[in-house]
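Cross-check.
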Amino acid sequence: MNGEFRLLREPKMPEAEKKSGAKKRVIPVPKPETAASEDVLRDESQLYGDEADIPVPRRKRTDARVPIMRDRTEKKDKDEKPQASFPKVAPKRKKKKHKKKKHRSYRGLFDLMSATGPDSLFRPIRVFGREIRFWPLIVLVAVVIMASGVILNNSNLTVAEQTITVVGLPDDLEGYRIIVLSDMNAKRFGDSQSLLCRTLNNLKYDAIFCLGDMVGKSGNPEPFWEFLDGLKSPEKVYFICGDSDPGPYISGARGTEGILSQLILEDWILGAIERGANYVDAPVCISVKEANLWVSPATMLNLEASSTLEVWQEQTEQEIDGVRSGINDDYTKLPITTYRSKLAQRLYDAQRNMSSTDIHISLAHERPSDTFIYTSEDHDAGVERFLSSPELILAGHYCGGVWRLPGIGAFYVPDKTMERGGWFPEQARVAGLSTVGETQVYVTRGMSTSASAPLMPFRLFNAPEISILTLTSTLPENMLEAG
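Predicted model, tokenized:
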């Protein structure tokens, strides 16, 4: 009975505890380390240094929103929630709103300029019954393309070749090639005029005629001097002044010593002469074997040589007397008067030395009027002493009209002497070759813009031009066919 009583009173173990008890492992108690193991640890600590020197590795945070614990060693109750502080990072939701705001502003601008949105400045247009909503953008792209084309057009150079038939041309001047430049206006074509000089040095020519406004209103002679420095043969350059160029004379003489031209001519002219160029302010003779080619300024065509020389010689003598009498005004004017007297002497000598077999080319900045040209042809060489009528007059100034319309040409040039005040002029007077009486006139389109047309600051459909004229005695084919 007692044994049965003990069985009945003995507490029964639940089944879950029985199973967990069966699975429990016995954790072995570590044995005390021996002296030998302590030596090994001591040796390793000496090898790697003190543990205090080893930096504690930090665990990288993968999420910026993980709370930073203020004190990891502080004991806290189980029910107490840990205090945390979050870094100041803009939530992604705000970034999305910011991006949406930019997107909305961009879309608003697009709708504004494309005639598609309700708030746009433009409204759709209809072309051939079809509605076009994106026409403002099309116009904007067209303007950008046109502006790029204008910039490239004004920076490039075109070469225009023209054959000039001269009746009675000497055999030694057959095929004589002349390069005509005008209206550079201190513009550069490449670094130190590299593009211009490279183009000219690759061409075959016998002379270069510069027809004025090479410096222009800016008064900067450097681009013109760089052009001369870059040429292989600057001594073949003959140039005149234009209406926008400084000078040619300074307001007062520089001094009393030196060559007369150095006392009164502008610095840009003297600089060009020092570089080998020839300033044409009086007739110059170019000898080509047995032939003579005369180059003169057009301003001297209708000057009677003997009377002009007489006037300037008398003026010079009067100013010399005035200087001796102590008149300061005469002292200032005397160098220029003396220089002009020498130019009159050169005109007189050229008129006497010109022969009927010589060729005469006259240089003008602005194209002379037809009346002026007819007058130069009507002089009686047997009685009056004028330069012989030129076979060819070269001019510039108009720059081809600056703005040219396709199929029409220049629609305006700054010349009030023309019909309609220069509007829609005769195209042969603006550019190219024409004939007045027995004189041929060639007008080059030039290289820059005309200072007389300030509202046209760039060239449109009108690339800068280098003209090459070839002299020949052969008649044109169309003239032979007409005969």
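The first strand starts at residue 68 and ends at 69. The domain at 160-482 is CATH 3.60.21.10 (Purple Acid Phosphatase; chain A, domain 2). Passed to J.P. for a second look.
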